[in-house]
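Each record in this resource describes a single protein on a pair of labelled lines. With that in mind, the following record should read easily:

===
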Amino acid sequence: MNWLSEWLRQHKRKKILVICAKADTAQSLEDYLRLRKGFATAVFHEGLNLIERDRAAAYFADQEDGAQLLVCSEIGSEGRNFQFAHHLVLFDLPLNPDLLEQRIGRLDRIGQKETVNIHAPFYQHTAQEKLLSWYHQGLNALEKTCAIGQGVYSEFVEGLLPALVNARPDSFDDLLGRTKSFADELVEKLQAGRDKLLELNSCKPLEAKALVDALATNDANSRLPAYMEQVFDSFGIDSEKHSEKSLVLHPSDHMRVEQFPGLPESGLTITYEREQALSREDMQFITWEHPLVRGAQDLILQSEFGNTAFCTLKLPPLKPGGLLLEAIFVLHCAAPAELQLFRFMPESLLRVVLDEKGKDYSGFLAANQLNKLLQKVPRNNAQDLVRHARPQLITMLQEAENITQNKQESLIQSAQDAVKSEMNNEISRLQALRQVNPNVRQEEIDYLQQRMAASLHFLSLAKIRLDSLRVIMTI
C-alpha cells in the first residue's frame, strides 16, 4: 500500500485500474487511499448493488472531474471495460491464468489506443513472487495474449501450489522449466492448426479500409445531432449537456407521447462520438440505426403528429392572398417484412403542389427551395384560416389525389418489373448451377419461385395513401 500510494503520486494525471481478489481488500484499500492519502477514488465490488456499481464506473470514466483510480474486486475482471485507462495494477495475482487474462482484458480491448502497462507489486522471496515468475517466464501471459493458459494450468495445477509454498528453490525452478517447455509445445500446436486460407479471407484489408473510411466520413458529416435535437424539442424531451458531443436525456412532464421509444423513465446518457462510446459503457452510441432514433422515426411516420402544417410564402410570381396545397403521398404495400419489398419501390413517394385552379407547381417549387422560403404562422391564426378555406382545400386535395392515382399503376408496374428481373436472374442461376452441382436442391429454386409469386401478389395490392399536408398562403 505504501508503494501504491507513492506510485499514484507520480502518476496523478493517469487513469488507473486496481484489481484485487476480495471485496474486503478492495474496500479497505479504497478507504485508505481516499481517507488517509487524499486520492480521488471509486470502489467496485460485489457488495454494491447494480446502480452503485454503475455510478462508480461512470465516476471513474469521467475525464474531467472523475476518479483517478477505480479499485475493483474480482467481479471487476469480467464484463466491465475501461479501455480509456492505460495502467493496470494487480494488487494480488489469481491462481488461474484465464482470470489473469480477464483482468488484463478490461483495458486491452477495442478502443484502447496505447500500450497497456501492467504493474504487479509483490514481496520478495514469497509465493507471490514465484507466481508472478510462473506467469511471466513460464506462460508469457503478461506481454502477450495467452490462449494456452487453461491448458497449461490443467497440466500443472496439482504441483503448482506446493511449488509456490515450498522453500526449496530447485522445486519451483523445475516446475518453471517444465511449464515453459509445455507452453511452447502448445503454442506450436496452435500455430500448426491455423487455417491460413480462412484467415486470409476473414479480413480483406482494402475492403475493410473502404468500410472504415465510409464510416468515418459518415460520422464527420452526420446530420443526426441536429435531427435529434429537433425531435427532442418537438416531443418535449429534456436534454442537457453532459460533455462534448454527449447529452443526458430525461422524460419531461410536457411530453407529447406517454412513452417515448427507447427512453427509460430513469433517463439516458447518449453520445454521437464513436470513440467516446467505445471507452464509456455508461453512454449509448447514437446512430441512425439506434432503437431511440428508429423509434422516433416510427413514431413520426405512424402517428399524426407533424403531418399537417400551415405557413406563408412570399414569392413575386405568385399573387398575394392565394392558396397552395402541398400534399405528400406514399405507395403503401402491406406485405411480410421478409419479402423486403421496399427494395423494389425506391420511388414510392409522390409530391404534388397545387393552387386553387389545380395547376401543379411541384416542378417549379422544389421541396428544399420551398422550405427556405416559408414562414411560420401562429397556431390560432392558422386554425382560423384553414377553417375558413376548408371547402377550397377539399377540392384541391381531391385534385391532388386524382393526379397521384394516375401514377399508381406505373409505380406498381415498375416495382413488379424489378422483382421479376432480380428473381428470374437468381432462379436461372440456380437452375444452371444445379445441372453441374447436385448440392443445389430443387427446394431452393421452388422457394425463390414462391417468393417471387408472393412479392408480385402483394405489390398488386399496393395503394397510394395520403401521408402529409401543408397549406401555404401567398402574401
